[in-house]
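Researcher: I'd like a candidate sequence for this fold, 70 residues long. If you have to choose between options at a position, lean toward the conservative one.
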């Protein structure tokens, strides 16, 4: 008999990094009332770049999904 391999994976460094940046975004929103993080936000320079990357990823994923519907 063959065992099915579990599709669940252990959280890795990428998950922890993503979660940390997401938490930083939540704190930014609580402080500023929006999620429009400047690209080079002095208190957390990586946050603005992370937000930009998330938006780009979402936009590309949405475009890919739209192309598959055609």
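Model: Candidate sequence:
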């Amino acid at each position: 008999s063959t065992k099915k391999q579990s599709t669940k994976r252990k959280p890795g460094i990428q998950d922890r990094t993503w979660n940390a940046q997401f938490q930083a975004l939540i704190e930014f929103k609580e402080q500023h009332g929006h999620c429009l993080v400047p690209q080079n936000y002095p208190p957390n320079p990586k946050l603005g770049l992370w937000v930009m990357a998330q938006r780009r990823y979402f936009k590309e994923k949405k475009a890919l999904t739209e192309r598959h519907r055609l």
